[in-house]
Amino acid sequence: MRTWIKDPLAIFADGAERGVIVEGTTIAGRVGRGQVPERVDAVFDASRHVVLPGLVNAHHHFYQTLTRAHPAAINQKLFPWLVALYPIWSRLKPKHLRLAVRMALTELLLSGCTTAADHHYLYPAGLEDAVDIAVEEALGLGVRMTVSRGSMNLSAKDGGLPPDSVVQDEDTILADSERVLKLFHDPKDGAMIRIALAPCSPFSISKRLMTESARLAERYDCQLHTHLCETDDEEQFCLRMYGLRPVDLLEETGWMSRRVWLAHGIHFTAEEIGRLGRAGVGVCHCAASNMVLASGICRTCELEAAGAPLGLGVDGSASNDSSNMMEAARHALMIGRLRYGADRVTHLDVLRWATEGSARCLGRPDVGRIVEGCEADLALFTLDEPRFSGAHDPLAALVLCGAHRADRVMVAGAWRVVDGAVVGLDLGALIAEHKAAAKDFA
Predict the structure, then answer these.
(1) Which of 148, 167, 147, 151 is nearest to 159 (CA)?
(2) Over the stretch 63-102, which tens digit does the pLDDT of each residue have?
(3) SS3 at position 71
(4) How many Cβ atoms from other residues are within 10 Å of residue 177's Cβ?
(5) Is the model's pLDDT at 241 over the cut of 90?
(6) What do you get for the CA distance between the two ends of the chain, in Å?
(7) How many CB atoms lie within 10 A of CB 89?
(8) C-alpha–C-alpha distance, residues 106 and 354, integer Å
(9) Strand-pair category, 310-312 with 55-57
(10) Which residues touch 174 (CB under 8 Å, ≥6 apart)?
């Protein structure tokens, strides 16, 4: 089946003024100005739609949808915020996680996101199959996903930050990491599920765990992920604990490679930015949570200029507090302009970061672009709301006027959102179940 997504109002792709041809699960061709495709089996009239590659969320914590705007943690910096929430999160059970993942994926889909990375690092007793649950939910909704098998093994008694109730020992973590890699990781183009290994952060993991995770990643050809240089407190912790700055810790544990992408990446020196760029280490900019927690501003322009893949993420739904990739793009634009000036960060830059840039972080050249051979992952937005009335540039309007909900979303050639609703999902029932589950964390 060859489907012509025909005559869009605008499209974020070169040479596709008249749309794009989808064949099976991939993009078969672009239709340029004045062109007519030779053969099509079906036509979708996109004349009301602005078409983007499916957005790619490079950093999230799905379980946190259950603790948005929690009174124990609002109005605090990262370390006290975490200390307040760890005991609350320790109540997490499989039934909670399943609903949290379903809600996060639903919210992301509705914002035009087709590929998402979830960093799950909490393993209280009974939640050993967290990765399995995330995989089941992603496949059920038809969302492409990198499930990051996160981990923490340093608790407060070891000099770390989290309590004993949410950490695991190194051997348990490494054994389960290998288990989920064998079960779920698909390194091929077009994969719906990939696994990444994601020791949480320098203040909750050991050097051995980082080193052994890097060795596993080489063996199984997967990506590596962690939080790094998010706050000044983290830098001081690393100096006290290891006698190293965070980037030096990466170097010493074998993490300076193209397999690695980092969340936040705020407090780098100019020399460190150069090293990261030369190594091809990616950075996921999480503008909203960085502002909420007052952590600082990612040096996006310098990182990209140095050669580091640069993507966007919504981060956890307890520090954003939403799971909306279009909002993430707008936040990145606004904070980027505040740092660099109105002419240095454009709507095209943040759309590129939210698509191709995030895909590069995840090691996925097969998504994030509307070009032949890439996966047919598309997000279609209309400009029918009052917020868009009078807008002249449709692509700029999505970011500047604050688009937040897609009308149509396609993943692997199949419509997953139609008329602003997730196909096959009772959203009202999900919200009711999710709200009821959240009461367990009050």
Answers:
(1) 167
(2) 999 999 999 999 999 999 999 999 999 999 999 999 999 9
(3) coil
(4) 26
(5) no
(6) 50
(7) 23
(8) 18
(9) unpaired
(10) 209, 212, 213, 216
To the nearest whole percent, how much of the chain has pLDDT over 70? Answer: 100
Residue 301 vs residues 277, 307, 349, 396: alpha-carbon distances, Å: 12, 10, 10, 20
- Name the pairing type of β-strands 42-45 and 193-199: unpaired
The pair of structure tokens assigned to 103 is: 């809600």
Domains along the chain?
Answer: 2-53+372-422 (2.30.40.10), 55-361 (3.20.20.140)
Q: 50 - beta bridge partners? A: 10, 381
Strand partners, 44: 5
The count of other CB atoms within 10 Å of the CB of residue 211 is 14
3-state secondary structure (DSSP) of residue 124: coil
Three-state DSSP state, 148: strand
Q: Per residue in 144-183, pLDDT tens?
A: 999 999 999 999 998 888 999 999 999 999 999 999 999 9
Place of tokens 């927690």: 293
Please state the φ and ψ torsions of residue 390, each to the nearest 5 degrees: 90, 0
Tell me which H or E stretch contains 339.
helix 325-340
